[in-house]
Amino acid sequence: MVFEKVQQLLSEQLNVAPEKITLESNIVADLHADSLDVVEMLMTLEDNFNIQVEDEDAANLLTVGAIVEYIEKATK
Description:
Elements: H1 2-14, H2 35-49, H3 55-58, H4 64-74
Helix pairs in contact: 1-2, 1-4
């Protein structure tokens, strides 16, 4: 469920077809996000999942799978 929501949000924000977004997708290399996209993505995820992503954690969120795992841990 978390993956599907993240997939939808990234698809809308980055203008990428949802089926091209997998758990293995790298946010920058595969989905072509720039630094502004990454900041906006983090803000969107914080708003949608009611979480706070710390700066040191954000640096490790390089793939969709890492983001999903982080959200699942933060919302338990």
